[in-house]
Structure formats: structure tokens, C-alpha cells
Amino acid sequence: MPRIIVENSSPLRGTVRISGAKNAVLPIIAASLLSNDKCILDDVPMLDDVEVMCEVLVSLGADIKRISSGRIEVNSRDIDNYEAPYELVRRMRASFLVIGPMLARMGEARISLPGGCAIGTRPIDLHLKGFSAMGAEINFGHGYIEARADRLRGERIYLDFPSVGATENIMMAAALADGRTVIENAAEEPEIVDLANFINKMGGNVKGAGTDTIKIEGVDELTGANHTVIPDRIEAGTYMVAGAITNGDIIVENIVTNHLMPVIAKLREAGVFVEEVPSGLRVYAPERVNSIDIKTLPYPGFPTDMQAQMMALTSVAQGTSVFIETVFDNRFMHVNELRRMGANIKIDGRSAVIQGVPKLTGARVKATDLRAGAALILAGLVADGITEINETHHIDRGYIDIEKKFQNLGAKVYRI
Ligand code: EPZ
């Protein structure tokens, strides 16, 4: 089994360039199903999850070409199959994002119930509530969901929780529906805005993305479009923490500072210096960071996808930190692995109390989800001795060229 080896690497110095956002490109590839023409996407990170999403579209009859590193061409003119295969959907929950565009474009979709990483039960009730409200008939059977609608009609839909996936799926379904759809209590993540911009480039009419109320006027058809995916704010935050935890001095390039405000605020609170420079952000932390309290929330609150990485940082901070994970009901799987490295963390339901220790020690650990895996690399950078991380496939779902990017910062991170 491949493993990632991390040796003590403090302090990191150098520059890292951030790739396109996984959580923007996945819905955007799905949205290409809405058009009967060619779409060209740039800054696409060729991650495992992106490969799976492309395989799902090909299984539906789309044609996908990788033009060069970072550019793909998607043509959904000839889609002829309604069923997304179990063996693909079970590998990645985001495959479920094809159901909205398939319903809108083909009037029918059959997809296996989603799988995905183990961070809590991840229902799809809000997605289905939206499709039903728009007139789709939903049936379950044999582990599959079947959805059918001659033509979806615009509706006013309230989301009990500002679900990112439900907001995206309903927005895509509404793009070709008859009339106006209003999504209330919508998710406000930057990736939602990027998807809306892409749909509008295809000739759609989406307004209010990035706020809690999104209005979509359905149109009769959508053309192809060219789009460059926004940079990955979570990949950026991960490397920023690497600079902080090693008391290093690094530059993170190709970022949208505004998307990182919650992360910047918390790092500064911990005593880390974060400065805007022409190419991005400079992150440096001469001293041992101090403890901070974090409560994860939907955007623009502190992102749940940065919780594990910040826990690695506070494991070696001065003082005691309290984390509350409000978005997922089981996103502390990294705690046991950090404990194996000497971290002092207590869990009580959705709360974790992290007592900073002066030193961690390298150990054999395993990645339990993609952000937990990243957190273990961060801890390994400052641990005494060698850290060996197993189940590295989780990490490859969300981080492109991770060992090369870390090596460019002077980190001793190798894959064996
Ligand atoms: C997206 O997942 C991201 N994935 C996740 O990133 C991210 O952690 C999450 O949003 C929150 O920001 C992609 O964009 C591909 P949700 P998603 O629907 O859409 C509940 C990573 O690390 N919920 O906002 O699945 C759900 O149980 C990944 O890159 C319902 O109750 O997240 C969860 O507790 C991990 N019913 C909460 O909402 C529903 O119908 C957030 O889920 C849908 C969701």
C-alpha cells in the first residue's frame, strides 16, 4: 500500500502555487451536462475525485478530453444514458450532483445512493425536497434513486440547512426549469458563486449566488462556455497552516484573499503574521502559536474543511483550545491519530478540547478522510522523528502534487 513519509521539517520557507478548487470544479463538470455544446474548463486539478466525476459523465454519454495539464473539454451533446453506475457513485458522494442537471436536461435520472468519506451520515433529503418541489417524481429501490420529470417548474424552496450540495443541485435543476426558482437559506460558499458564474456564461440566469437567497430564471437551453475554476481556498489554508506550524515564512500564490478571511482571522488570532503580497499571501510565525477557539459554520463562518488542519496547529500551541464542529456529526476521526503522535485532545460530542504540548512524536498513522490526512502531514512536519501515513488515497482525493508542493517549501515529505 502506498504511504506518505514525513520527517521533521521546521521551518518551511518558499512559495507554493494553489491549484483550482476541487469543490468548485466538481459541480461545474456536472453542470456541463446542462449544455448541448462543448465546455472548456481551465485550472482543473486532476485529482482522483475529478477523474471519478469525469468517468461518471462519460458513463452518461458525454465526451471528455484532457487538452493539457489543467484544461479539459467536456461535450454533453450526445448524452444518452440516465443511470450513473454504482461502482462510480459509491466512490464519491459528489457524483450525486449529476442528478439535478440530468433531471433538467433529460427529464430522468437513476443514481445509486451516494457514498463518500466517513465524516458522518450525509443525507440527501434537502436535494430531494428541492426536486420534488419542482415537480419531479422520486422513487427508491435496490439502493438506487429514480427521478423523473417531463419539465421541472420553478418553485420557492427553503433549505432547512444551507447545504452546499443541495444548493448546487437545485440551482442546476432550476437553470432549465419552467419559470423562476428561489432558493432560501442557500449556502453562500465561493464555490456556489463560481458555479453560478459558469451557468450564466452558458446563457443561464442565476442571481444572488453568495447570499442566502438565490433566484434562478429557467431558460430553454444552455450553450457551451469557457471557464477558469477559482483557486482552492482549503488547499491554500492547508499550506498556510504548514507555514505557521513550522514557524516558517512562506508565500501562498494564486489565491482569492477574500475567500480566506475566516482562516486568516483565526491564524492572526493565534499570533501568526499574514500579509498580502503582490502574488498572494505571506504567512510567517516566528514564535510558537497560541491557543484559539474555533466553531465551524457554513460560509462565511470558519470552514469545517479546515478544522482538522487547525487542530494539528493547536496541538502544539501555547495553551488550551476548544473546537466545536457544527457542520458534520463525525468529523473528529483525526483525533485518535493525532493522539498517537502525543497530542492531548479530549472529545465530548461535537466539542474537542486541545491542550497544547511542546512536542509531538512521529508515529505510524492513517488518514481517515482527506482533511484528516492533510492534518497528519502538518503534525508530522513538527514531530520528533518520522511519521508514516497510511490510506493515502484519501489525501489524493483533495490535494494535487502534495509531496512536490511540500518539497518546494523545504519539507521532507515523500511517497513510498
Ligand atoms: C460540500 O459537501 C463539500 N464537498 C465538503 O467538502 C464540505 O465539507 C461541505 O460541503 C461543507 O462545506 C463538495 O463540495 C464536493 P453539505 P456537501 O451538503 O455538499 C447536512 C472536502 O473536504 N445535509 O453542505 O456534502 C449534511 O449531513 C469535502 O472537500 C443534510 O442534512 O456538504 C452535513 O451535516 C468534505 N441534508 C451538512 O448538511 C442534505 O440533503 C453539510 O452538508 C444535505 C446535507
Overview of this protein structure:
- With 416 residues, the chain is of the alpha/beta class.
- The protein is 31% helix and 25% strand.
- It contains 14 helices and 24 strands.
- The protein has helices spanning 22-31, 48-59, 86-89, 99-106, 125-133, 164-174, 190-201, 233-245, 261-269, 307-315, 333-340, 370-382, 393-396, 402-407; strands spanning 4-7, 13-17, 38-42, 63-68, 71-75, 83-84, 108-112, 137-141, 144-148, 156-158, 180-184, 206-207, 213-217, 226-228, 249-253, 273-277, 280-284, 294-296, 320-325, 344-348, 351-355, 364-366, 386-390, 413-415.
- Strand 12 (206-207) and strand 13 form a beta hairpin.
- Ligand EPZ binds next to helix 1, helix 5, helix 6 and helix 12.
Keywords for this structure?
single chain, 416 residues, alpha/beta, UDP-n-acetylglucosamine1-carboxyvinyl-transferase, Chain, 4-stranded mixed β-sheet, binds ligand EPZ
What is shown here, in short?
The protein has 416 residues and is α/β, with parallel strands linked by helices.
What's the level 1 CATH class of the largest domain? Alpha Beta
CATH topology label of the largest domain: UDP-n-acetylglucosamine1-carboxyvinyl-transferase, Chain
Number of helices: 14
Bound molecules: ligand EPZ
What portion of residues is helical? 25-40%
Structural class estimated from helices and strands: alpha/beta
Distance between the termini: 9 Å
Measured by DSSP, the beta-strand proportion falls in: 25-35%
Largest sheet, in brief, is: 4 strands, mixed
Radius of gyration: 21 Å
The residue-averaged pLDDT reads 96
Counting DSSP E segments of at least 2 residues, the number of strands comes to 24
* Approximate shape: elongated
Count structural domains.
2
CATH superfamily of the largest domain: Enolpyruvate transferase domain
Strand order of the largest sheet: 22-23-1-24
List the uncertain runs.
Answer: none
CATH architecture of the largest domain: Alpha-beta prism
